Structures are given as C-alpha cells and as structure tokens.
Amino acid sequence: MLNIKDLTLAHLTIGATPALTIEAAAVAGFGATGIRICGRRPGDSFATPVLNNPTAIQALRTQASDLGVRLSNVSGYQFYPETRLDEVKPVVEATAELGVPILVANSFDSDESRFIDTFSAYCELAEKAGIRVALEFLPYSGIRTLEAATRVIQASNSSQAGLLLDALHLARSGATPEHIRIVPAERIVFAQLCDACAWSGDMTDDALLQEARGARLPAGEGVLPLFQFLDELPAHCEIEYEVARQDMRDRTPSEKAKVAAVDAVRFMVRYSQWSDAREAR
C-alpha cells in the first residue's frame, strides 16, 4: 500500500517560505518536499533570504533533518533574455550547501540558441556541484513543448541535464502521455502530478500561467489522462504533488499540505487498483 512518505510535496502547493514548506510537509506526512529559495528574477524580493546566507541555509538543513523531510529539489531564478550566469550562480551554490540534488530550471527567453548557451553553462556549474538540472517546459514560456525541452537538453551536452515532466504542462502543450516515450528514461528527473478542467476559451499565455499557478485540480477530479501519464514514467520515478488551488489560498501552509496529502494518497490508491485490475485481465 502506498504511503504518503513515498510522495513529494511541491512548493507551489503551499506557496510559503522554505521553512514553512518543510514544516507543512512534515505535518502532512510527506517524505520529501521541493522549496523555492529566491524570487523568479534576480533582484526580486524574497520573504526569507537564502542566497548567500549560510545561517539560513544551515537552519533549513537542520529543520529538514530534525523533521525527517528530504529536500528533493530547489526552484531558483528563472531564465530571461537579460539573465546573466553570475546572477544565477548563487542559486547553484545555495542548492549545494543545502545538500539538495536537483535544481529546477524554466526559460522565459524566446531565443532558444541564447538560452541553450546559458543553460549549458548553468548545467556545467551544477555538474561540478553534483546537482542535476531538471528543465521544465511550460506552454506559456520560452520552452513550450516536450520536444523543445528535449532539444535544449541534448544541445547542452550535459549528462546532468534532464526533464521535469508536469502532467498539466504536457497536456496544455498539446502532447499526450505516449509522447513521453521519446525521452530516454535516464533523462526524466522527476514528475509533477495534478489535474485540470477541460479547457474553454482562448489559450493565451496569461490564461495558461494563471491556471498553472492557482487553478489546478486535485488528481482524479479533472480530465487529464493521469493513469496513462503515470504508466509512461520510468519505474520508481519521483512523483511530486503540485496542486495550487484558489479555493485554498486563505488556508495555512499545514492545512494546504494535509488536504494535498489526502488527495494524493486517494488518487494513488485508485491508480494502484486500476493497475492491478488491468494486470489481472
């Protein structure tokens, strides 16, 4: 029987500081969590500074260890046309000091060639620190599709570069779970699980962004082919539960995490039962 400790809590589900996210993951029973350690752009304000802050980094490491929560991945600065490598280097350094093995990367640079150069250099820094870089394609960003993300990863020539596969972004980019088969299993770093309504209206970048950051549905309550999505992932792929919901925005981080835990386990039990029934046929 699946245990909630087998799942990772996404920082976006909570929308809180790293410390509060770790605490919420522990309260809800998640075995691991992702954390955001800075704003989306260099220079953005951040409630609890982590970069270049050894005291904060040690406090987060101690907290996670004491609470038995593994720090799975870090979200740092996103990449824009003006983003420079020296601006994002502190993210790699802080991630290494935190002892976290995965860095999530997103691109909002429409010039793919320029981003490949920056991404390759970023991966080189991460590789020296023993960190994998998980590139996440977003259908409202500079890297909009699975194919584009795969192309960038191959062009980076980095053995540490891989993919973060989000069920929502896969569907909204026009792909199906079967398209995951084009990706070598070793290039899939981890996957994010959520559900969504059937799309209505214009599929603008802003509408897609707003859905991703605040209008997802609990797994099993929408129309995404999530059983098939999970089937196409490599065996033992890490699953992060990422459901940012407007109806939960006024709840505490721990309350959000508890609700997410119940929803995630309920769905994964259904998936396990479905898989067992299919095997029995």
UniProtKB/TrEMBL annotation:
Protein name: Xylose isomerase-like TIM barrel domain-containing protein
Species this chain originates from: Advenella kashmirensis W13003
Superkingdom, natural source: Bacteria
Domain (Xylose isomerase-like TIM barrel) ranges: 25-234
